[in-house]
What does this fold into?
Amino acid sequence: MTVWSAVPRVLVGAIAAAALLGGLGVVSPDAAAAPAGTVPEETPSDVLTTAEVRTREAIAALEARASAGRVAWTTADGQLLAAGQRDALATSLAEAATLLGDPRRILDAVDEAAAERYLDELRAAGGRIGQEMTRLGDEIVNWHAAQTRLAAQRAAERAAQKTSRPAPRSSPAGSVTASAPRARTERIWTTGGQAQIDRCRGAVDVTGLAAYLGGDFYAAEHWRCGGSAWSGIRSGAVVTFPGYGTYRVVGRVGGLAYGADATAIPSGYAGYYQTCIGGSSSNMTVWLLARA
It folds into this structure.
């Protein structure tokens, strides 16, 4: 089981795109042959037009917006009232990917009007992703409100059933009564990365991922070294991490393969626990935790 790098691959892609487009200050190859004290004359290929500079900025902005959109699309899974409410965002992300697939389109354009049209398309694509993210956020709020109402309704029903039941007969002296299930305890023995996880001494807090995702910790553990105990842990389960506190499972992201983008993990949760189901690196699962 291998943990991700804390830097999502989309940032690496942005760096690669910048390298493809070239630097902003290119010195003419003939500069070395120019007489001392002479400023080399720039050729048209050495000069970026205003449209090119603006488009480079728009490309970077759209890449950042698309990265945030992918996180929002993943986070919304399981937190929506109806199926298909993520489809519009998925469509906008696909359109953005098409536009970003050929960043040389602006550099090869001779027609200034064509360059401006591409710039407008980039900006419009970013705007659509932003609108769909906002709408999806509203839908998630509606889902949580519905869950709160449902929980209150169920609590009221349980209270009504409790008052309608006859009082239980007292237990005979010395009898044993059932107790409430105890919270699971998961110990994090150190901080570090893959080397510490491979020592198989328990869960390891991968602080780089914790910082990137904004959690108190990011615990990772091999399936064979203790992670298998999480196979039966579902949403609502309570887990105590000594030294960190008590947390409640509020969801999980599964089926992730080795090398998956770190943005596949939603940020903003209080804690995270990762293991590979059955020891398979193609089925990494991350439990999402909130403070209990």
Notes: The chain has seven helices and eight strands.
